[in-house]
Amino acid sequence: MNLQNITFTLPLLILILAVIYVIYYYSKFKGAFKYISWFILFSLVIQLPSSIMGRYGISNLFFLHIYVPISYILFVLFYKEVFKGFINKTIMLLSLWLFILFSIVNTIFWQDIDSFNTYALSIESLLIIIFSLSLFIFLLNETVREEKKGFVSSLIWVNSGLFIYHTSGLLLFFFAEILTKYSITEFQISWLFHSLIYLIFYICIIIGLWKYPKK
């Protein structure tokens, strides 16, 4: 197995390990971290068949049109729980419904299921970056840190994973459609980078769940 195959396969293996860990400790995760555990389980449901199809040269782009809105729902629910009592939940729920509406319209009228839904991916990344930066700022406040006592380390790791992944992937998502049309080599290199970022993302999530108090 060459380096490229290893790079594409390793994130899936890490995800499988994360799923095993989540299943084993599922009853221990509460509140915001319940949504992160759901995200891990959902990711495997999408990533496993997508990886198999991709390996055999079968188009798997339609999975993104499912993955993006559902992952955003879970992330918003995660941040809604984290910001409970500090930010009006109506704002976050409004962003959720507007994003779902946009994703549906995007798939129907602009980027169909056989193309990259780069518009939705880019907007999701921008919104998650805003949420993650807001959480980093909130965690600098002593009142917030006291409110989240016992979960701060877990929050930092999960939030860092979300920030790193969506920040690094933003340009890639934005230019993905162009790369698929004009340069196969650049496309492969870009998505090799994406796999490495995905690996870092899952590792941060696993560490965050591992540090979550389970007593």
Give keywords.
215 residues, 8 helices
Structure described in brief:
With 215 residues, this protein is mostly helical.
Question: Could you describe the 3D structure shown?
Answer:
With 215 residues, the chain is an all-alpha fold. The longest helix has 31 residues. The model has no long low-confidence stretch (mean pLDDT 87). It is 82% helix and 0% strand.
User: Total number of β-strand segments?
Assistant: 0
- Counting DSSP H or I runs of 4 or more residues, the number of helices is 8
Instruction: Write down the secondary-structure element order.
Output: HHHHHHHH
What characteristic shape results from the CA principal axes?
A: globular
